[in-house]
Amino acid sequence: MTGPTTVMGTNGRDGFRRLVHAEWTKFRTVRGWVAGMAVGVALVVALGLMSAAGSHASCGMGDVETACTLTTGPGGEAVSDRFFFVHRRLDGDGSITVRVNSMTGQIRLPDATPGVRNVVAGVVPWAKAGIMVKDGVREGASYGAVMVTARHGVRMQHDFTGDVAGRSGGVSPGSPRWLRLTRSGGTLTGYESGDGRRWTVVGTARPARLPATVEAGMFVASPGDLTVSRGNLGGASVQVRFTEATAVFDQVRLEGQVEGGAGGTWSHDDVGVTYEPDGRTLHHPGRFTESGGTFAITGVGDVAPSTEGMRIESTLSGLVAGLVAVIVVAVLFVTAEHRRGLLRTTLLAVPRRGRAFAAKVVVTGAVAFTAGLTAAALTIPLGARILRANGNAVLSVSTFTELRVVAGAAALTAAVAILALACGALLRRGAVAVTAAVGMVVVPHILATASVLPLGLAEWLLRLTPAAGFAVQQSVPEYAQVLGYYSPQGGYYPLPPLAGLAVLCGYAALAAVLAAVRMSRADA
């Protein structure tokens, strides 16, 4: 009776719970393992906060220094909101229609002769000119716009992150584009036309904060010119240079309850403009002229999400070191028993031996997840606060994104620990298993992010190896409408956060299954 009763107990749910409790008891009673996890947490927190404390920045011009700040949009994200705006006040529903005849510009290149400005004619791909409805003229205010771009055709954008492509290309000499933007309640609809008679819908949008009275008009913006110079070892140097764009508008028609009526005066604002150190002179100002209903508007800057600034995951600079400590503990959790012959005793007492290893997986994953969660929950908010106190501009993210990064760091830690545990069970030698786990997770990440590999190879490492899991900590996505150097060296991963984590979890699950199969053999 005793034998069968024991088998039934260990095969049931209560039996597995007892196995998990037994493995947890093993773990917590070995001081070295508990201390090792504590060391992992301490490394993440200490290195992250030390890095934040050592990072100082200031913004300003000349001898005038100020703390760096960022503008936030309606969704709480960091945004760039600089453009030249010619506008009138619109109450309630209405529409604005224009024809964009041309768009030209200037780009400043590195000076060929010291002290002599090297400016050439041209427009950058995301230079934009069009019509906009905006909640006033303050930076970061909600808006909707339809526009032509230099190389990305007609677009409809709203609230900085929304972007919809139209059907046609951009404006070119002899081929102007008509644009129309209508408001009906909280909905904006953008249209485009080649002749002003046949119209095609570009898209619709519902900006987050669009009051009854808005500013409607024409705008021009021109983001900086991005140049990436790659070194012999795969590293890159990124430069952003000044540009400006000029667009010519005519056939302007504003319908609805417009301030001043049909013949009213147009206002103009250089939204987001900065000043020289004297506090009075505009730095790279925009401008406009109007003659006979034709407007020539020149603008600089961009209306888009901002990717310039430090990100919250930069505070997790100690995560790699912490993962090494977690890997060592996870490997020892299984190899120490094997070395002492205790693992055979455990397996002989459990008819279904794979369940014994599954219990180890549960305990290892839970302990590592808790350690990672504790480390990230302490480091990210404290580190971001220290960075801002030191004058750094930290990119704003939503509360959901910050929680996702914290939970993602915990899930990453748990998956790495399970992978290391499985390596220990398969290889049975502590040093070899630790080397294997570090080689699969840590080494590819370091090589891909340390500017020692070509960009293509670095991205493939972060797609195909367990190091793909590090993507889960990325807080700022790659925006199609923002020209940037999206690379692992810059903190951008080739896979989306959850997809990268899924790759790591796939490796961990496969290794765990193989380890369980091996443990099920009679010679385990």
User: Regions with pLDDT < 50 over 5+ consecutive residues?
Assistant: 1-10
Query: Strand percentage, roughly?
Result: 25-35%
Largest sheet: 14 strands, antiparallel
Q: What is the number of beta strands?
A: 21
* Class per helix and strand makeup: alpha+beta
User: Gyration radius, to the nearest Å?
Assistant: 29 Å
Q: Can you count the helices?
A: 10
Report helical residue fraction: 25-40%
* Global mean pLDDT: 88
General shape: elongated
Alpha-carbon distance between the two ends? 27 Å
Description:
There is one protein chain. Helix 2 crosses helix 6. The two termini are 27 Å apart. The strands form 4 sheets. Strands 3, 4, 5, 6, 7, 8, 9, 10, 11, 12, 15, 16, 19 and 20 form a 14-stranded antiparallel beta sheet that branches. The chain has a 3-stranded antiparallel beta sheet with strand order 1-2-21, with no helix packed on it. The chain contains 10 helices and 21 strands. The chain has 524 residues and is α+β, with helices and mostly antiparallel strands. The protein is elongated, with a radius of gyration of 29 Å. Residues 1-10 have low confidence and may be disordered.
